[in-house]
Amino acid sequence: MDILAIGCEYSGTTTLLERLQEWMLENFGQHTIIHDHFKLPHASGHPPIDPPGIILTSEEKAQVMAMTPKVKEIFTRYALYYHTPSELGKEGEIGSIRGGHHIDDLIYGPHYFGYGGPEEPGDRRVEAQLIEQRLNDYAPNTVLVLLKASPATIRRRMKDDPHESSLIQDEDIEFLLGRFEEEFHRSSILNKFALDTTESTPKLTFQQFLVEMEPHWSEADRLRMLTKDA
Amino acid sequence: MGGIQEIHDHFKLPDIACYRLGRPAEPLNNQELEQILGWTPKLQEMAQRQSLMCHMPNTSTADDYILVDYHIGDAVYGPRFFGYGQEHELQGGQRSKYARRTEKHLLDQAPDTILVTITASLDTISTRMASKPHSYAIVQSKDVEPVLAAFTQEHENSIIPNKIMIDSTDTTVEEMVATFRSSMQPFLSIQDRRRLAMLKN
Q1: Minimal Cβ distance to B47: which of A51, A75, A122
Q2: pLDDT, greater one: B38 or A87
Q3: Does A130 lie at the interface with B, CB-CB under 8 angstroms?
Q4: What is the pLDDT of residues A99-135, one digit of tens each?
C-alpha cells in the first residue's frame, strides 16, 4: 500500500494519515512511518514513532526558514528524491504513507518560498513530473488522495487549532484550495480519489477513505488483513 | 570514449549544489555557504544523506557516471568536521558503517563501479594547501595525516571489489592519468571496450 495524501493545510491530511497508521496496526498487524514533512520548516521526523532527536528543534526550524530560496530549493529537492522510490520494492513490502510530498512542494515552493517557479532553476513542474514518473515506475499501486474542505472550514480550523509553524495565510486559502484541486486532476497517478472533510468528522472521513480504498488494496494488504490473527 | 558523462563533485560541505535538469542557479554565494556551515549537525547530516541517495547511479541515463568523494568523503569528513555520523548517530548509525550500506545500493545498481582513491604524501598535501588553497577547505594542516589515514581505511573497508589506489605524490597530472588508464584496464566492461573499439575504428 502506497498512499499519498494531499491537500491545503488544515484540510485534514495529517489527521487521516495518523488514523491510517493506527488502523494499519489494528488490521495489518504492522504499520509504517508517515512521511509528512514536506511543508517547511517541517523537514524531518515521523512522529509518534521517531525518537525526539530526529525531529527538528526550534533552532533548526529557524535555520531552515533562514535559508535563501536557492538553498531551500536544493534542500527540498534532495529530500523529495530521497523519499521517492528509485527501484521496485520487494514483493509484499508494507509500502509508504506520504503527506504532501511533491504536490506540497510544487504549490508551496513557488508561492511561499520563492523557488521552483516556471523556467527557474529546479522548476517544480518539471521535478514533479519526474517524481510522478518514478512513483508510477517503482510504486505503481500508489493511491493519490485529495483532502479538501470549504474555505470557511479551513479558516475555522486555523483559528480553533492553529498549527505550529503554520504556513498558509488567510488571504491565500481560496487560491491554495484551487491549486491542490488542479494538481490532483493533473497528476499522472492513476489511482486517485477525493474526500471532502467540510461537513465530516475525522472518523467519518476515515470510513469514507476505507470505502474508496477497497479497489486499491494490494494482494499483500489483503493477505495482511486476512492473516493478522493467524 | 565518447558518450555522455555525468560528473558529481559536490559532496564536501558547504558545496551541495547540483542541477541535473534545466537551467542551473548562480553558484552559492558566501552568505549561503556560511549558512550551510552554520547548520546544526542534524541538518548537515540530513542534507548529505539525502544528496547521496539522490545521486545513486540508477538515477542517471549517462554512459559514464562519475562521483567524486561521495559516500567515502561523507564518512571521512562528517564525523570529524561536522559532528554527525559518529557512533551514536540516530540516522543510519556510524557513517563508516552507513557507507557500506550505501555501497550495497551502489553495487546493486552499478556492479561495475570502480573505487579510485587518490593519495599523496603529507608534504605534498601541505605544499598544495599552501600554494593553491581551496575556498572553504575542510582539511587544515593538522588534519592531513588522520584524514589521509581515514581515506586509506575506507578504501580498505570498501566492499566495492574493483578498486584502485593511485599515489599522486611525485607525479604530473599526465602521469597520474596514464597510471589511472592502465589500472582501469582489468575493470573495463565489455560495453566500455565496445565504445573504445568503435573510437579506434
Answers
A1: A75
A2: B38
A3: yes
A4: 999 999 999 999 999 999 999 999 999 999 999 999 9
How confident is the model at residue A51, as a pLDDT? 79
CATH class of A3-227: alpha beta
Whether A120 has its CB under 8 Å from any CB of chain B: the answer is yes
Tell me if A87 and B46 make a contact (CB, 8 A cut-off): no
Do residues B127 and B168 touch, judged by C-beta distance below 8 A?
no
Q: Which residue has the cell 537551467?
A: B23
Prior bond of A48 cis (ω within 30°): yes
Q: How far is B109 from chain A, CA to nearest CA, in Å?
A: 9
Q: Angle CA(B26)–CA(B31)–CA(B34) in degrees, nearest 5?
A: 115
List CB contacts (< 8 A) between A87 and chain B. 58, 108-109
- The distance of A117 to chain B (nearest Cα, Å) reads 12
CA dist A54 and A39 (Å) reads: 16
Q: How far apart are CA A3 and CA B185, in angstroms?
A: 47
The ipTM estimated for the assembled molecules is 0.92
For B196, list phi and psi in degrees, rounded to 5.
-65, -40
Sequence ranges of the domains in chain B: 5-200
Nearest by Cα to B6 from B75, B76, B58: B58
In chain A, the residue whose alpha carbon lies closest to the alpha carbon of B53 is: A82
* Radius of gyration, alpha carbons of chain B: 18
pLDDT one-digit tens code per residue, B9-40:
999 999 999 998 888 999 999 999 999 999 99
Domain residues of chain A, as ranges? 3-227
Cβ atoms of B52 and A86 closer than 8 Å: no
**Other C-beta atoms lying within 10 Å of the C-beta of residue A3:** 23
Please state the three-class secondary structure of chain A as a single string.
CCEEEECCCCCCHHHHHHHHHHHHHHHHCCCCCEECCCCCCCCCCCCCCCCHHHCCCHHHHHHHHHCCHHHHHHHHHHHHHHCCCCCCCCCCCCCCEEECHHHHHHHHHHHHHCCCCCCCCCCHHHHHHHHHHHHHHHCCCCEEEEEECCHHHHHHHHHHCCCCCCCCCHHHHHHHHHHHHHHHHHCCCCEEEEEECCCCCHHHHHHHHHHHHHHHCCHHHHHHHHHCCC
| B166 bridge partner residues | B118
Global pTM value: 0.94
* A60 alpha carbon, distance to own chain's centre: 22
pLDDT tens digits, B80-95: 999 999 998 888 899 9
Spatial CA neighbour of A121 closest among B33, B27, B10, B21: B21
